[in-house]
Design a protein that fits this description.
- The longest helix is centred in the C-terminal third of the chain and has 105 residues.
- It is built from 20 helices and four strands.
- It has 517 residues and is mostly helical.
- A two-stranded antiparallel ribbon has the order 1-2. Strands 3-4 form a two-stranded antiparallel sheet.
């Protein structure tokens, strides 16, 4: 995205079948976002892998659509709000718009003053105010103003959308006071484009029938085998022509390839006749504009629906490398980012076929992968670390090796990361190894001391046993000595008692006279 005068200008060229006016791939400088993203579609300024131009993120789409919204004054003049013109809600909003005619209804009713006033109304009136505010979001500025805003993106659109825009531009000049929804809802506009669509469709059908009839008229010039083969080719060609997902130029490419492959085995004269008829086949090119406008009127497309169609054509979309119709998965490794235009153009055709129309895709795909790698390397794209490696394998397998992306930058980055991590781990290991041996040495010292202590401990234990035995013997001797002591004391006590008794006896004899002998 280039920012000019604060408005986004997306530099993108057209997408044509002949590949004339080759798409320009401008070089943009960009800064990595502050916050990482988790979806590749949210990478700012991501190049479409096909056309090589910046795609829009979902947030970009919403910001751009806001620039097309009509102010409150214009909204209240729109015929879409005709059913509410006599209501109290409409009168209130009209008075409110006088204060800020260029602001949207939704923003006006959210102001504190407006909210306070709305609360005083009956419930029915409040509901009508909400309905009007909701409807107002689908109303854009008048058709000339829409074209002026779309003009800045004109070179981004493919030829089909440019053709539609050219018609819209003519209508904006014819009805400058109407929005596109008002124009396309006009009975005469719906009738004209519906009739033209039907007329062109019938004319194309008639032309196809005539061409296939002319091919059948060539059967007499063919062998039985050649007739069976061309009948099979005709069936395949009709399946392609009736495929609603293929753009007209894709149909032409596929049908041309079918008949070229078949007629390559035929004689030159017959080959030229067949390819001459096939070159006249119509593929619905004449109805691109008529279908768009007729359906817009038929299905009551709003102004914003019409504008959103064009802006969303530039949105980043997930392109299934192996198409879902061919059992492709939704895994991120099965996808690259294309703008919606290129995604719709490729449909489910093979990449070798698609590259015939857009050979520049090889270069633009590489630029997209380079940017993804930059985001991965700086940690700004979460969940896509292995995406470049995985998507390379899927692209090679699904494109017959036509799409070869270079991811050496990522692999070299990973190698450097791994080398740095290895060196850091090695330094830590060496440091830890040194620490291990230091601790081992200290442990050996401690173990040696423990061995010495063990010897001392054993000696002390032996000495303890000897002393314990001596203590036990001393205890026994002590008890024996105590017992002897007690016996001796008892004997002493007895001797003393005997002595005392004898002395007492002697005293008593002296007192009462001599004892007779």
């Amino acid at each position: 995205m280039l920012i000019v005068d604060n408005s986004y200008i997306y530099n993108k060229t057209n997408n044509s079948y002949t590949n004339e006016n080759r798409r320009i791939n401008p070089t943009f400088g960009y800064r990595l976002p502050k916050n990482p993203v988790t979806d590749i579609r949210d990478i700012p300024h991501l190049h479409c892998a096909s056309c090589g131009n910046d795609t829009l993120r979902a947030s970009d789409i919403l910001d751009i659509l806001k620039t097309f919204a009509a102010g409150s004054k214009r909204v209240l003049e729109n015929g879409l709000l005709q059913p509410y013109k006599d209501t109290e809600a409409f009168k209130f909003l009209k008075e409110l718009s006088v204060t800020a005619p260029k602001k949207s209804i939704s923003s006006l009713v959210k102001t504190p003053e407006a909210l306070s006033k709305i609360k005083t109304f009956q419930n029915d009136t409040q509901l009508e105010i909400s309905k009007i505010a909701l409807l107002s979001e689908s109303i854009t500025v008048k058709s000339p103003a829409v074209m002026k805003r779309l003009e800045r993106y004109y070179e981004l659109f493919n030829d089909y959308n440019k053709e539609i825009l050219s018609t819209l531009n003519r209508y904006s000049l014819k009805y400058p006071n109407k929005t596109f929804a008002e124009i396309f809802s006009m009975p005469e506009v719906i009738k004209y484009h519906t009739n033209q669509f039907d007329k062109n469709q019938k004319a194309e059908m008639k032309q196809r029938i005539a061409i296939f009839k002319a091919l059948r008229n060539l059967y007499p010039k063919m062998t039985a085998q050649e007739i069976r083969e061309i009948q099979s080719v005709n069936s395949k060609a009709l399946a392609v022509i009736n495929n609603e997902y293929y753009k007209p130029h894709i149909k032409k490419l596929l049908v041309d390839e079918l008949y070229k492959d078949y007629s390559s085995k035929l004689q030159d004269n017959l080959k030229r006749e067949i390819m001459n008829y096939i070159s006249r086949l119509p593929y619905g090119e004449s109805n691109i504009v008529h279908r768009f406008i007729a359906e817009a009127g038929k299905y009551n497309k709003t102004d914003m629906d019409i504008v959103e169609y064009f802006i969303r054509e530039l949105q980043a979309t997930f392109e299934h490398i192996v198409a879902k119709s061919k059992n492709g998965s939704d895994s991120i490794s099965n996808g690259i980012m294309l703008c919606k235009q290129c995604n719709g153009e490729r449909a489910d055709i093979s990449y070798p076929q698609y590259l015939k129309i857009h050979p520049e895709m090889k270069v633009n795909l590489q630029k997209q992968i380079n940017k993804v790698i930059t985001f991965v390397k700086h940690g700004k794209l979460i969940g896509y670390d292995d995406y470049p490696i995985d998507v390379k394998d899927v692209l090679l397998n699904s494109s017959d090796n036509f799409l070869k992306i270079k991811i050496r930058n990522l692999l070299k980055f990973r190698e450097n990361q791994s080398r740095s991590a290895y060196q850091n781990a090695e330094a830590i290991y060496i440091e830890q190894l040194k620490n291990y041996y230091d601790m081992r040495s200290k442990l050996d010292d401690v173990n040696a001391k423990l061995d010495e202590l063990q010897k001392v401990f054993k000696a002390l234990k032996k000495e303890k046993r000897i002393i314990s035995d001596k203590l036990a013997l001393a205890d026994d001797q002590k008890e024996y000595s105590k017992l002897t002591l007690d016996n001796k004391k008892a004997a002493l006590d007895a001797a003393i008692e005997n002595l005392k008794a004898d002395e007492n006896l002697n005293k008593s004899t002296t007192k009462y006279g001599k004892i007779k002998k």
